[in-house]
């Protein structure tokens, strides 16, 4: 999988989600609508927005929510998000 992202853009959330999920993604950076290898990013994402996730089968997903959903599903296939011994979401609390 390839994740197309720009530094300090909304795609940062998708990048973090993929890293936290432990997914084998290659991050490709986009600047001025050009990919890191000089390619035209509009050929990958017609609107030119990041993030875009190119799956192994060649399908491209655009927009953060669809990229996050795929990351979640892929992570669930390999054992879910919880670490052994971590509390469940129902018992954990936060003091934000």
Note down, in words, how this protein is organized.
This protein has 96 residues and is of the alpha+beta class. The chain is 26% helix and 19% strand. It contains two helices and five strands, in the order βαββββα. The chain has helices at residues 11-21, 64-77; strands at 2-5, 26-31, 34-35, 52-54, 60-62. The chain has a five-stranded mixed sheet, with helices on one face. Helix 1 (11-21) packs parallel to helix 2 (64-77). The longest helix has 14 residues, at 64-77. The chain is globular and about 35 Å long. The N and C termini lie far apart (34 Å).
Relevant terms:
96 residues; alpha+beta; five-stranded mixed beta sheet; disordered C terminus
Strand content: 15-25%
Series of H and E elements: EHEEEEH
- Most strands sheet: 5 strands, mixed
Roughly how many Å apart are the termini? 34 Å
Radius of gyration: 15 Å
Shape: globular
Could you say which structural class the secondary elements and strand pairing correspond to? alpha+beta
Poorly predicted sequence stretches spanning 5 or more consecutive residues: 88-96
Compute the average pLDDT.
80
Strand order of the largest sheet: 3-2-1-4-5
Q: Provide a count of the helices.
A: 2
Helical content class: 25-40%
Number of strands: 5
